Amino acid sequence: MKLYYLPGACSLADHIVLEWIGQPYEAHRVAREELGSPEYLRINPSGVVPALQEADGWVLTENAAILNYLADKFPLAGLGGEGARGRAEVNRWLAYLNSDLHPTFKPVFRPERYIDGEHAQENLRSKAVDRLRIYYQRLDAQLHGRDWLTGTRSFADPYLFVVLRWAMGKGVDLSGLDNLTRFHARMQDDAGVKAAMQQEGL
Questions:
Q1: Residue 110 has pLDDT above 90, yes or no
Q2: 117-156 pLDDT, tens per residue?
Q3: Does domain 83-190 correspond to CATH entry 1.20.1050.10?
Q4: Rg, C-alpha atoms of the chain
Q5: Paired residues of 51 in beta bridges
Q6: I want to staple 51 with a disulfide (CB 3.0 to 4.6 A). Which of 4, 20, 34, 82 is the partner?
Q7: pTM of the model as a whole
Q8: How far is CA 122 from CA 56, 79, 101, 130, 173, in A?
């Protein structure tokens, strides 16, 4: 297996899961300027990370698909939840992170893609940051009394760790969200997380 990643991007979630699984894989760093290159577009026509390539040349894109695939390919790692309801709960929170929270960061990172004018861009960025606070409040509530989002470790947890790193880097107000603080500290101490971050130079 070969994971195409950009340091600190959402592909870090897949990178951590590969470390948790403990099977051989290759991590290939893609420079940001290479995302639109003909070579990489043959791997992922969307020009984004992650992409996971198998030895036979088959390529899977989209984070949610890759995480589910890895859970199914390596069931002994126990990252996909137990039974139909367990998998549904893991995917509930993966969907929340991937479809609701993650897109809200787009105007935080690059507001100029959505609106012209510095003042308008700052207003848009500020509103997105305020909205993110609401999303993190719900996640903090979900972690009350739990070490992991669904009670047991799953592929949703590395994704949460990634977007928590983004929030801390972009000044999202996480004050008082003590469950998230504890979760972040636990993940930082995890051997698999450390290994993936070291490989990515984070």
A1: no
A2: 888 888 888 898 999 999 999 999 999 999 999 999 999 9
A3: yes
A4: 17
A5: 4, 61
A6: 4
A7: 0.95
A8: 46, 39, 19, 12, 16
Give, in order, the Cα–Cα distances in Å from 23 to each of 85, 86, 87, 168, 188: 27, 24, 22, 31, 21
Domain ranges for the chain: 2-77+194-200, 83-190
CA 19 to chain CA centroid, nearest Å: 14
Question: Comparing C-alpha atoms, which of 101, 99, 71, 85 is closest to residue 161?
Answer: 101
Count how many Cα atoms sit within 13 Å of the Cα of residue 160 in the half-sphere of its side chain: 33
195-201, Cβ contacts within 8 angstroms, sequence gap of 24 or more: 195/19, 196/12, 196/15, 196/16, 196/18, 196/19, 197/12, 199/15, 199/27, 200/5, 200/7, 200/8, 200/12, 200/15, 200/27, 200/29, 201/7
